[in-house]
Amino acid sequence: MRFSARSRRAETSPASAAARASRSASSRSPASSRILASRQFLDIGTGLPTADNTHEVAQRIAPESRIVYVDNDPLVLVHAQALLVSAPEGVTDYIEADVREPEVILRGAASDLDFDQPIALMMLGIMGQISDGDDPKGLIDRLMAALAPGSDLALSDGVNTNPALNAAIKAYNARSANTYHVRSPEQLAGFFEGLDLVEPGVVVTSRWRPDPVEVGKVPEDQEAAMGGVARKA
Ligand SMILES: C[S@@+](CC[C@H](N)C(=O)[O-])C[C@H]1O[C@@H](n2cnc3c(N)ncnc32)[C@H](O)[C@@H]1O
């Protein structure tokens, strides 16, 4: 199922804060600059629409940018239908699909994205929703294998470095059907294996952000979300 859309982020799990922290595409870091230079985006785990969605940021810089959003939550689909907006020069599309079926996503995206050209694969705040039993690294590899050299993976998620957050996640998992799988920084870094990490590497997500003053900013040593950008050679 597909609809052109823009996205707002779902507050579906303890990963949400981490995801919100990481999705700012306007950053001074080389990693974010790399993503901002992309003209094609495959944004998996879109979430509900909010301000500065991927297509808004991308098409502000380059109106011809092509964006395909993917989420498996029917609620996201409802909002996506209401918010189909794209610059006339570009494309914004929405596919309802599950990241655990990469080939379905790749087939669906092929009508909007040129797979002979680089594509930025955005996986912000989604892999924590995928259990080890579903082979998250294997899913990433299957997606990246279909992308042209020069394509980037931007991935972020919660990490298990904050005991208070770990306790909250444990409590959340005990009462929720959708469990969240918080991983170590090393496990998160492992998702980039086989790709060339862009500076500053896998870091706390605030280091992607430009704002000199951020209301409510969490001190870096208490942050429990990390991410990075890596390029396919
Ligand atoms: C924490 S939100 C992150 C939203 C957004 N990427 C951001 O950075 O703000 C995670 C999103 O992943 C979606 N999601 C969870 N499991 C998924 C799956 N198996 N396939 C596709 N999307 C999934 C959820 O519906 C939700 O919208």
Automatic annotation (TrEMBL):
Region annotation (Disordered) ranges: 1-32
Q: Which InterPro entries match?
A: SAM-dependent_MTases_sf (IPR029063), SAM_dep_MeTrfase_SAV2177_type (IPR006764)
Domain of life, source organism: Bacteria
Give the compositionally biased regions (Low complexity).
12-32
| Name of protein | SAM-dependent methyltransferase
Organism per entry: Thermocatellispora tengchongensis
